[in-house]
Amino acid sequence: MTALPESIVIAAFLAFCRIGGCFMIMPGLSSARVPMQVRLFVAVAATGALLVNLWDLILPSVSREPAILVPMVVSELLTGSLIGLLARLYMMALSFMGTAIAMLVGYGGVAGPGIENGEPQAPLGEIISFSALLLLFVFDFHHEIVKALVQSYQVAPVNVFFNPRAALVNVTDTIGESFMIALRLGSPFIAYAILVNLTVGFVNKLTPQIPVYFISLPMVVAGGLILFYFAIATMLSLFADGFLAASFGN
User: How many domains does the structure of the chain reveal?
Assistant: First the structure.
């Protein structure tokens, strides 16, 4: 094999490492419900499509020396995984708040099988997480991830090794921003839980001979579901609006 075909193969492999590392962790495509062959074929297809535009950024930095190529492959994997992780952290924040909402309205007693991650989760929290993920795909958030992959070659070129300090700063900022957004989205349910449980506690003190908590549980659940019915549309809309700022704003 001559030098040029070798460089072409190495450049394609380096692009696949960054794109495949992102697709391996990003929400939706990395789900256990998606077969591994589908993920592999999607990563290969995206690599072939993007390599046409990234050719001038990757090929000049290609080296056939193992001492340089191996760290370069590791760096590309870490860079792609970081981009996918930033998007997954945003979804994890909403999943956490969905579980908290289910507990706050008294509807989180029995956990069911998860849809996106396969882990047991309260049905109400799973509805919130899956609806938000579906909404993000409808709004083409996967296009934004692909755009972030293309732009990452300007910020983190192939010939520059992965910077763990900058990556940690990005992860920390994304976690803080994501959980602040999730906390604002769940604030009506937090206020509802505080007021309802405080009221039930006062009533229980006034009439200690009556098991108020058992009697009030259906009303607490019904009130929480009514609040959820009126708040879910606005909550998902605000969640979709904050995706870009929380995941790739840094």
Answer: 1
